[in-house]
């Protein structure tokens, strides 16, 4: 029996251009996500000069900005960060669902990794827990996913670097 071929991304040689697109709404939580993402990228060898941060009003506006970044900047990966906190109306479902679906579609359309670090939580306490306290930092986790996918896409012969 032939051995099964396996590929997976790593965190070595992941330098390149990364763009973090950030929804400012709930900035008291989101600012910590950005700090976590930048810290992880730099710790893994991404030159700070190759990290751009784009601010938009909130999670709803993330997909449009991400699309423009993909068209114009052609980064190795985009990291989308924001926080949607459930309230007493259905607004949460529309914003969170629309944002997540659009980001997924853009990733496929542009064949470029988009790490989704948009928190969708029931309370401010949950948001705080996921932005650097007891549940870790989801911004840092999104940056890790972005780097791993950049590495994997390079192995598979795809990504922004190959098309330039």
From TrEMBL:
Biological process annotations from GO: riboflavin biosynthetic process
Gene Ontology terms for molecular function: 6,7-dimethyl-8-ribityllumazine synthase activity
Q: In which pathway does it act?
A: Cofactor biosynthesis; riboflavin biosynthesis; riboflavin from 2-hydroxy-3-oxobutyl phosphate and 5-amino-6-(D-ribitylamino)uracil: step 1/2
Indicate which residues the UniProt annotation says bind 5-amino-6-(D-ribitylamino)uracil: 25, 59-61, 83-85, 116
- InterPro entries with a match to the protein in the record: LS, LS/RS, LS/RS_sf
The source's superkingdom equals: Bacteria
Q: Give the E.C. number(s).
A: 2.5.1.78
SUPFAM superfamilies in the cross-refs: Lumazine synthase
Alphabetical list of Gene3D superfamilies matching this protein? Lumazine/riboflavin synthase
Q: Which reaction does it catalyse?
A: (2S)-2-hydroxy-3-oxobutyl phosphate + 5-amino-6-(D-ribitylamino)uracil = 6,7-dimethyl-8-(1-D-ribityl)lumazine + phosphate + 2 H2O + H(+)
Residue positions annotated to bind (2S)-2-hydroxy-3-oxobutyl phosphate are 88-89, 130
Write down the Pfam families for this protein, in alphabetical order.
DMRL_synthase (PF00885)
Give the annotated active site.
Answer: 91
Q: Might you report a single GO cellular component term?
A: cytosol
User: Keywords, A to Z?
Assistant: Riboflavin biosynthesis, Transferase
**Which class of enzymes does this protein belong to?**
transferase
Family per similarity comment: Belongs to the DMRL synthase family.
- Annotated function: Catalyzes the formation of 6,7-dimethyl-8-ribityllumazine by condensation of 5-amino-6-(D-ribitylamino)uracil with 3,4-dihydroxy-2-butanone 4-phosphate. This is the penultimate step in the biosynthesis of riboflavin.
Q: How does it assemble?
A: Forms an icosahedral capsid composed of 60 subunits, arranged as a dodecamer of pentamers.
**What protein name is recorded for this chain?**
6,7-dimethyl-8-ribityllumazine synthase
Instruction: Give the originating organism.
Output: Halomonas alimentaria
UniProt lists the gene as: ribE
């Amino acid at each position: 029996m032939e051995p099964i071929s396996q590929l997976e991304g790593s965190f070595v040689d992941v330098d390149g251009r990364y763009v973090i697109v950030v929804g400012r709404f709930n900035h008291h939580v989101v600012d910590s996500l950005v700090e976590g993402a930048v810290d992880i990228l730099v710790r893994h060898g991404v030159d700070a000069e190759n990290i751009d941060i784009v601010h938009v009003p909130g999670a709803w506006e993330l997909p449009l900005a991400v699309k423009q970044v993909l068209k114009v900047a052609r980064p190795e990966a985009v990291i989308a960060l924001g926080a949607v906190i459930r309230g007493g109306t259905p607004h949460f479902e529309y914003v969170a669902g629309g944002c997540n679906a659009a980001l997924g579609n853009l990733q496929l359309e542009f064949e470029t990794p988009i790490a989704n670090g948009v928190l969708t939580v029931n309370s401010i306490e949950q948001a705080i827990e996921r932005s650097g306290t007891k549940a870790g930092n989801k911004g840092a986790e999104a940056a890790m996913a972005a780097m791993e996918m950049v590495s994997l896409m390079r192995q598979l012969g795809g990504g922004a670097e190959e098309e330039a």
